[in-house]
Amino acid sequence: MNTEMPVTSTCPDSKSALNVSIIVSAAIIFFTGLIGNITVLLIIIKKRKYGTSDLVYRLIGNLALYDILLLLFSWPIELTASLTPMLSGQPLCYFCSSFPILLNTGTAVTMVMIALDRYWVLLKNVNPNSKERRKCLILVFILLVALGYSSPVITYTVFAHRTIQLMKIRNRTCKTSSICFLHFDSNNQPFFSIELAQIYFVTRYVMIYVLPLIVVVTIYSKIMRNLQSRIIIKKSITYTTFAKAQKKLIRKLLILVIVFFVMSSPGRIYYLIVHFNPRLYHDSCYLKYQSQFLICQLIGISRCSLNPLLYASAIPGFELALRNLLYHCCSRLNQVIKIKNFV
């Protein structure tokens, strides 16, 4: 489905330095986030004797998995398509439209499930280490919700060509490039409905970022108040120690949700302000706003390199498990080196 969308701009095509800075920053975020999340996931899976078999830690592992998928499959493709649009195609267009929504929705639903798990365990005395089948069903439920919410996006995704006509400054011109956007029909007419798109993007932002934040903050606030009141009533040193440890864990989980909201919001808000304001978007330089939007996306993806620190702080015995894991890896590496030297 290709259409021509000419846009006239007076900005020079001089993004080389900015592109290099974005690529370097993206590479740092990619490697630090990937190593950190893989480490967290391995420790949760292999070091269950340190208490990581509870449902809450499986859900934290699910968050790490979504971060890994975002870094491996979504962000590199989006970055490449933004910096070199001629390399993107229609299949990648549909993938880039739906896959990030799937991962972000899965992350948001997982955070809500973590809050509900803490509510059930601490206030309703539910067993934190439930059966494996129940844990798997919860993870599958999260995935199905994310798939259901992201699938309709493919229906409205359009792959088209945008012609950006630039003034000749230092003999530089801009060529026609491919773009990927959502197209909403109005009254069965083939044109872009700004009103429908605004409603869709605002609703999506509220459902994925704002609503989960409100739900999680409400649940955690109730848990904290309840724990504090029980400390006063029971006056037990054992329960006080337990309650303080749980309150510390809840504060870390709350920070995790706030980081998800704060770092993901700039890109979504910038897109809403610029893309749906004709005066800003069409009369100014398209390439400039594309670069600025990419920087906002970079801020959003940087949470994947920050999250492992929050995950690790919430896992009991993480430092000891990490040392044991590194020792095991070094031992295996030494064995491989000895075998190669012997051969």
Any overview of this molecule?
This protein has helices spanning 16-46, 55-83, 90-123, 132-150, 194-234, 237-275, 278-281, 286-301, 303-314, 318-342; strands at 4-8, 157-165, 177-182. The chain has 343 residues and is mainly α. It has a 3-stranded mixed sheet. The longest helix has 41 residues, at 194-234.
CATH class: Mainly Alpha
Q: Can you give the helix content as a percent range?
A: over 70%
- Helix/strand-derived category reads mainly alpha
End-to-end Cα distance, whole Å, is 58 Å
> What is the annotated CATH architecture?
Up-down Bundle
Which homologous superfamily in CATH is the superfamily? Rhodopsin 7-helix transmembrane proteins
Roughly what is the average pLDDT, rounded to an integer? 77
Shape: globular
Strand content: 5-15%
Number of domains: 1
CATH topology name? Rhopdopsin 7-helix transmembrane proteins
Number of strands: 3
Strand count, sense and barrel status of the largest sheet are: 3 strands, mixed
The DSSP helix count reads 10
Unreliable stretches (pLDDT < 50, length at least 5) are: 1-14, 165-172
Q: What is the H/E order?
A: EHHHHEEHHHHHH
Biggest sheet strand line-up: 1-2-3
